[in-house]
Design a protein that fits this description.
It is a single chain. With about 150 residues, the chain is an all-alpha fold. A two-stranded antiparallel ribbon has the order 1-2. Helix 2 packs across helix 5 and helix 4 packs across helix 5. The structure holds heme C. Heme C binds next to helix 3 and helix 4.
C-alpha cells in the first residue's frame, strides 16, 4: 500500500506528466498537424476570397462542408473531385439558379473573379486531409437483369 506521501507524489507526478503530454500534442497539432493537413501553404488570396464569399452568401444555409451546415443540398467537401471545375462553374453561373432535380439553388450574380475564388476555395478544400471523411457511401450492388 502507498503511504499518504507516496500517494501524493504519485498523483502529482501523474498529473504533471500527462499535462506535459497534452500540451506537447496540442503544440504539435498547431505547429505541424493543422498546417500539413490543411495544406496551409496553398491558401492563396483566391482561396481566401472564395472563403469570404462562402461565408457572406450563406452557402452553409443549404450545404455542409466538413459535415457542418444544413442538409438541404449536397455535401461540398469533396465536390471538386466529384464534379470537376466546369460543373462547379456552371452551377455558380446558372442564369436561372441551379437545380434540375427539384431543389433549387439561389441565383447569384458572381463576377468571373468571384467564381474563380469559389472554385479555388472548393479545390483547396478538396485536398484537405480529413482522415477519411466523408466516408464513401455504402451503396447496394446494382440489380442484375433477370433472364
Ligand atoms: C437555397 C439553398 C442553397 C444555397 C444558399 C446554396 N446552394 Fe448550392 N445547391 C443547392 C441545391 C439544392 C443543389 C443541388 C441541385 C441539383 O443538383 O439538383 C446545389 C448544388 C451545388 C453544387 C453542386 C453540388 C453537386 O454535388 O452536384 C455546388 C458546387 C454548389 N451548390 C455550391 C454552392 C455555393 C458555393 C453556394 C454559396 C455561394 C451555394 N451553393 C449556396 C442549394 C443551395
Amino acid at each position: 500500500m502507498l503511504s499518504k506521501k507516496q500517494a501524493k507524489i504519485f498523483f502529482l507526478g501523474g498529473t504533471i506528466l500527462f499535462m506535459l503530454i497534452f500540451v506537447g500534442i496540442s503544440v504539435h497539432s498547431l505547429m505541424v498537424g493543422i498546417p500539413e493537413n490543411t495544406n496551409a501553404s496553398e491558401i492563396t488570396d483566391q482561396v481566401r476570397l472564395g472563403k469570404q464569399l462562402w461565408d457572406h452568401n450563406n452557402c452553409m444555409g443549404c450545404h455542409t462542408i466538413m459535415g457542418e451546415g444544413a442538409y438541404y443540398a449536397p455535401e461540398l467537401t469533396r465536390v471538386y473531385s466529384r464534379r470537376g471545375e466546369t460543373y462547379i462553374q456552371a452551377v455558380l453561373t446558372a442564369p436561372e439558379g441551379w437545380g434540375f432535380r427539384g431543389r433549387k439553388m439561389v441565383k447569384y450574380n458572381f463576377t468571373e473573379n468571384e467564381v474563380a475564388g469559389l472554385v479555388a476555395f472548393l479545390k483547396w478544400m478538396d485536398k484537405t486531409n480529413l482522415n477519411g471523411f466523408p466516408a464513401p457511401p455504402s451503396m447496394p450492388p446494382p440489380l442484375q437483369p433477370v433472364n
